[in-house]
Amino acid sequence: MSPQLPDDLFVSILGDNVAAVSLRVERTLREGLSDETFVATHDLDLSEYVQLGHATKTLCPLPFPSLSESWGGLDNDRLQTHYEQVLWQVDWNSHRLHVLQVSWATDCGTQSRHWVIARNESISRDFILDVARKTNDPGQTVLVFQNGYWNRSSEMFHMIQGTSMDDLVLPGERRKEMIADFQRFLQSRSQYESLGLAWRRGAILIGPPGNGKTHFLRALVHELDVPCLYVQSLKHSYYEPEQLLDKVFERARQVRPCILIFEDLDSLIDDDNRSFFLNQLDGFEKNVGLIVIATTNHAERIDAAILDRPSRFDRKYEFLVPGVEDRARFLELWKNKLAGTVPWDGRNIPELAAATEGFSFAYLKELMVSSLLQWVHGSASTPATKGSFETALAEQTRLLQSQRGSTAGYLAQSGDSGTLSKALRRIGW
Question: Confidence band (pLDDT; 50, 70, 90) for 405?
């Protein structure tokens, strides 16, 4: 037999403590509802669910909602409405129900809770479950983790869809080999399990900036066509590192097989969160179907326990400053892209490739873009060849080399001063 205790025991015990807010809401609901029941839930992405077309919602004028407006910025030049306290009327699967959202401040930031009100508890539970299932799938978005929360990015998803491996230059057959490696992994779950191996993969892309790591990563996500989760930040004013990493890996495990990306790993993992990160990576059964990919410009800053233990990142791919052959292949790609638009036959590509010793792919792209701008504006400085795209390329090569440091200092570092000097003279230096 249960002890005879007051109905509002917890409310009276907690008093003004914020933990009593939800209890007071539920007491009010019990007193105000006659033919309906309610179910409380912490996570209900109602807006996303409605946007996906699974339900419609209408703002109830009473009780008076609490809302605020903010500017969406230059790229979304309109006022955006933010709701804190609101009651929605929802039409879903021939049912009409209501969703009450209440938000309140805590020492750890703002907390929100939803109460789904329906004719019976079964309808409320079915609705909550369907919302969770439908909104858990990233769909046509990338899940981005920042400020302690996951957000959907359609912009990043469409950027990935527009990225092609065809625009990426890597030595030999490396590009095909790396893609094939991940494709085989996704197709080999039964083989892994028959051998008693965990079906998971970790890879880290290493190399100086501007040499294709991010491009490869985006193109790989496009090629593999599995959900993508991107970790942008692991900092928060209130949450501890362990809580943030729990959120990251827990969400990834809900949508696997998927790709979980830690770009610039050396800036995300530090002394405060390293042990938690290692614990998450070491999850055996929990990480089945998880592809964890990290990038770094500074491998020397990453703890050996992360970098050198095969069970964590069992693939390491280097993206180094391109050699002369790869620079020529990159310039050839641009020549083909500009064909019919720019009068450039590409005959000077070998000389340009030699003259751009030390250029990253990002620097080579800057060479092409800045040369195009100079050619478009007709600002080549040599009167006899004004308007020549080849002249613009030569001048921009000289400019970018000077920005990288003095030619003499650079040639001393490269150890190939004779070849480079001849090449620079041949393109007009």
Answer: low
Taking residue 240's Cβ as centre, other Cβ atoms within 10 Å add up to 12
Q: So what CATH class is 153-318? A: alpha beta
Strand partners, 166: none
User: Which residue is it, tokens 């949508």?
Assistant: 255
Per-residue pLDDT band at 426 (split at 50, 70, 90): very low
- Note the pTM of the prediction, 2 decimals: 0.80
Q: Which long-range contacts (CB under 8 A, 24 or more apart) does 52-57 make?
A: 52/134, 52/135, 52/139, 54/92, 54/130, 54/131, 54/134, 55/90, 55/91, 55/92, 55/93, 56/90, 56/91, 56/92, 57/88, 57/89, 57/90, 57/91, 57/99
Tokens in use for 261? Answer: 């990306």
- The token duo for 357 is 């010793």
Confidence of residue 1 (pLDDT cuts 50, 70, 90): low
CA angle 86, 91, 95 (to 5 degrees): 120
pLDDT over 90 (residue 314): no
Place of tokens 């309610």: 38
- How many whole angstroms separate alpha carbon 251 and alpha carbon 27? 33
* Tokens encoding 6: 């007051």
**DSSP 8-state symbol, 273:** T
CB-based contacts of 326: which residues, under 8 Å, 6+ apart? Answer: 169, 170, 171
Average pLDDT over residues 361-387: 76
Give the chain's end-to-end CA distance (angstroms, integer).
96
HSE (side-chain half, CA atoms, 13 Å) at 230: 22
